[in-house]
Design brief:
single chain; mainly alpha; 11 helices
Length: 247
């Protein structure tokens, strides 16, 4: 699933959706991955304690994970972080002891600590890096996405059908996550297509893509001409693309 558990939990309270059902769905994909499965089995209690002690930091981590398009819960990510930190602490210490045993065993412990702290810092920063990378990819894909949407609308496809086509195309890997998220909102939470688009826009790191999604949702809500809206957006995106290429 591409929808964060905390976000789903909040929506579940508003929509009175069965929370256990949501939890089973959001964890379904993670259970198929070996590393999160092992990490959660060993360190889930520690990760839950961290979430309770540092709620603001973990909420920010979850937001960056969502914006970065990572299919993972913050709890699982913390468990993986702790697991890797412990493994590197052990391996680094063992290597350090073998290399520096003639000098001092403390050098071995120091090497293990340095490797462990480096891993923690890297994994803490990575979701932010993933968010910035995805933002760049979305900005590059957007002109082609708009043109594709226009072509599909001209074929008289319904909005949901448009997202289903885009979700299964290989040309927009960054935007695919938003398409699947929109479909998840409509099928799992029974939101309308316009509400689903707005919710998906909240988890989009690209300002331009977010504006496009919100304009699209507003057009559907106000029952205006989708073809006309996409035609205007297409002309605007082509002009911006040409201007960018000429710089």
């Amino acid at each position: 699933m591409n929808i964060g558990w905390k976000e789903k939990q909040k929506l579940a309270e508003e929509l009175k959706v069965d929370k256990d059902h949501l939890k089973r769905n959001v964890q379904k994909e993670e259970k198929q991955k070996i590393l999160p499965r092992i990490a959660n089995k060993i360190f889930s209690s520690a990760s839950q304690a961290i979430e309770r002690i540092f709620p603001n930091l973990t909420n920010r981590l979850q937001q960056n994970i969502l914006l970065g398009g990572m299919n993972m819960l913050s709890l699982s990510y913390l468990s993986i972080l702790i697991l890797i930190a412990f493994v590197l602490l052990f391996i680094g210490t063992a290597i350090g002891v073998l290399l520096f045993y003639t000098y001092s065993l403390w050098y071995g412990f120091l090497l293990g600590i340095i490797l462990s702290m480096t891993a923690i810092l890297t994994l803490c920063i990575y979701p932010f890096i993933a968010k910035k990378r995805r933002e760049k990819e979305l900005n590059e894909e957007l002109p082609f996405i708009i043109n594709h949407c226009k072509a599909l609308a001209n074929l008289n496809l319904k909005p949901r059908a448009i997202w289903e086509v885009l979700a299964h195309t290989k040309y927009y890997p960054a935007f695919q996550k938003d398409c699947k998220r929109i479909l998840n909102y409509t099928s799992l939470l029974n939101l309308s297509i316009s509400e689903s688009i707005k919710k998906a826009a909240e988890g989009n790191p690209s300002k331009k893509t977010k504006e496009f999604l919100l304009d699209l949702a507003q057009t559907l809500e106000e029952k205006k001409s989708l073809k006309r809206m996409l035609d205007d957006k297409t002309k605007e995106s082509i002009m911006q693309y040409k201007r960018k290429k000429n710089l």
